[in-house]
Structures are given as structure tokens and as C-alpha cells.
Amino acid sequence: MTSYDNYLMLVDMLNTQVPVLGFVAASGTGKTTLLTLLIPILKQKGLRIGLIKHSHHDFEIDRPGKDSFRLREAGASPVMLVSRYRRAMITELDPEQETRLEDQLKQFDQSELDLILVEGFRAEKFPKIELHRPSLAQSLLYLSDPDIIAVATDAVLQTLPHIMQLDLNRPEMIAEFIQIQVMKAHD
Predict the structure, then answer these.
(1) 6 within 8 A of 149, measured Cβ to Cβ
(2) Is the peptide bond before 161 cis (omega within 30 degrees of 0)?
(3) Residue of 163, 99, 169 lying closest to 130 (CA atoms)
(4) Per-residue pLDDT for the chain (187 aa), expressed as one digit of tens each?
(5) Are residues 133 and 71 in the same domain?
(6) Coil vs helix vs strand at 17
(7) 32 & 120 share domain
(8) One domain, residues 135 and 169
(9) How many distinct structural domains can be found in the chain?
(10) Closest by Cα among 114, 147, 105, 155 to 130
């Protein structure tokens, strides 16, 4: 089975209107760095990009003393903060339940997007590109994750034939892979 065939099978499972592609790796490998380089290239090609980033840490995007923080602390959930420049929706989640990618995808207005990129959600079943730097001495994830369709690396690896190998230092190559292999699946 090729990485493209595997991608098609996984896409059907997500039940989304637009392609979804994840980026997974050990912490410190450069997922966010790659995405900050990749997104402008994809936007230049006319794609409207959404992104979901999974965090294992608690975070606040609101600050104590602000009205929206006070309203949320009073029990409102969700709270939507809107200006003429951007919108943020803050929804309290049950900390006892692990967040699922499928639930987060439902929050996107997919009619306004061409592609959703995901950083993290490594254990979920959806198409992913693994980032791998042999210098970090981490195990390859694709060996135990059949949902990985390609490996972006900064060194030549001996990978299985169905795994496409991409140059981690050439985001334009990864963007081309996304356009040819990932976007084609939704045409």
C-alpha cells in the first residue's frame, strides 16, 4: 500500500469536508518551526489553512482582570472575544477527559478552509507526517504508527518502501508533497 492509498483510507475515517494532515514528533524536533515556514508557502499557493495545536499543558489566553476572564470565571462557557481584527472562543473542557481531534475538527467552519494542519494528537487515527532528526536519538514513530504517510528528516534514512521521505530543511518540498498527495485526495 502506498502512502497515498493509506492517506485516502484515513481521510474517509475523519469525515471532514477538507483534508486534514498532522505533524508529529518528539518534543524539540521542530514541528512548530516547520509549520511556521510551511504555512506561508501553502498560503502563497492559494490555500486557506486552519491549524489545531494540541497542548499537554494548561494554558490561559485570557488574563485576570479582563472582562472576558471575569465572565468566564463567573461560569460562562464558551466565551467569545471579538474585535475587528480577530476572534477567540474560550470553552472550558472537562479536565478528566482527554481531548479528541474529531471533537476539535467540528469547531472549524470548514467551508472557509482548504486544509487543516494539526500539530500533535499523535495517538489519534488520521494522516500524519513524522518529523525525525537522527541527532536527537529518538525512535522512528512510523514503525508503530500506520497512520504516518511520510517522514520529514534532516538525514537520509532507510525507511520502508511505502513511506515517502521528505527533506525537513526544505519546506517547499513538503508543501509540494501536500499539494500532490494530500490535496489530490480531496479533488
Answers:
(1) yes
(2) no
(3) 163
(4) 555 555 555 555 566 788 999 999 998 899 999 999 999 999 999 999 999 888 654 556 677 888 788 888 888 877 878 878 877 777 777 777 777 888 888 888 888 899 999 998 889 999 999 999 999 989 999 999 999 999 999 999 988 888 999 999 999 999 999 999 888 766 6
(5) no
(6) coil
(7) yes
(8) yes
(9) 2
(10) 147
Grid cell listed for 147? 497512520
For residues 86 and 138, membership in a common domain is answered with no
Rounded-to-10 torsion of CA 61, 64, 69, 71: 170
Q: Is 38 exposed, middle or buried (0-12, 13-18, 19+ CB in 10 A)?
A: buried
Q: 141 — phi, psi (to 5°)?
A: -75, -35
Question: How far does CA 100 lie from the centroid of its chain?
Answer: 13
The cell for 53 is 495545536
Contact by Cβ (8 Å): 101, 52: yes
Quote the CA–CA distance of 29 and 170 in Å, as a whole number.
Answer: 15
Q: Which residue do the cell numbers 460562562 mark?
A: 76
Residue numbers of the domain that contains 86: 58-98
The length of the chain is: 187
Short-list 111, 143, 153, 158, CA closest to 16: 111
